[in-house]
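[audit] Reproducing an earlier prediction to check determinism. Same input, same settings, fresh worker. If the tokens differ from the archived copy the diff job will pick it up downstream; this log only records the rerun itself.
[audit] input (140 residues):
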Amino acid sequence: MLSGTAFSTGGYSAEYGQALSSILVLNTKQIPEEETFNIGLMSVGADLAGTKKWENGAISASTNYMNLAPYMELAPQNQDWNKAPESIGASLNLRQNTAFKGIFKLYGSADQSMLSLTQSVFGNETTARSAPMLKTPTDL
């Protein structure tokens, strides 16, 4: 996603807490040179990713899934899991050349994690359940 970063402070050195200004430059990747398709398989999940290119732009997408339940069946845990950790995620990246040698870039992602466990807190047994957590899309 990023091809380089640079951070510069202005005025005085930030080491002494007297920075008057600063700049953070994030260089994003340009339009890819070729189309790709990738499949990844793991013992606890899988992922897919691909890039489709056209004359003045490209779109890249990826998705992943992970479930630790099979692993937790094989390896004893010190936690009392009601639901083993499980997650799913996806991302989309659009890059399009515009007039006057400009480029429009859009990136979005979403992830959801689910788990539930029972823990003893100060001698009292309680059930702690996580609500599904959803990351909001991010634009660059």
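[audit] rerun output stored. Observation attached for the diff report: The chain has a mean pLDDT of 77.
[audit] end
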